[in-house]
Amino acid sequence: MTVSPDELRIAMRAWATGVTVVGVQHEGILHGMTVSSFTSVSLDPPLVLVSLEMGTRTHQLVEKTGAFGVTVLGATQQEVSNCFANPNTDLGNRFVGREVFSLATGAPFIKGGLAFFDCKVLQTLPAGNHVILIAEVVATKITPTEGAEIDPLIYFNRRYRQAQI
Question: In sequence order, what are the residues at sequence separation of 6 or more whose Cβ sits closer than 8 angstroms to the Cβ of residue 143?
């Protein structure tokens, strides 16, 4: 018995996720996309996993550079998530007008995020119409400074949600 893509999509709506933007820089081109498939794999060595749809511009550029950055979005960054998820903006520069910075690899990060992971790809695994990237974290940055708290951007059942702490 096989589950259809629509059945899986509907069932996955019950899984709450954080929201990230995976960014890449190649030959002066900055590009990125919203990604909710992001997780820690190992603390020693420091490894993370992201899943990117094959054929997307972000995937193609990460394949060329072997590096990417992950910005974990805060609750006030819904517009950022929507912009980077919009297929109509895929060929444009989604970073225009945004404050960005880089760490070790040159990958772009969006100012205002909660945490930033600079990554070098170690392994790629084809998985259906996606590719799973296992990457070594070569640098991190954390916001906010100690003592301040910012809520994460959470996505659940096709809507952004506020954390209930």
Answer: 112, 113, 114, 115, 116, 150
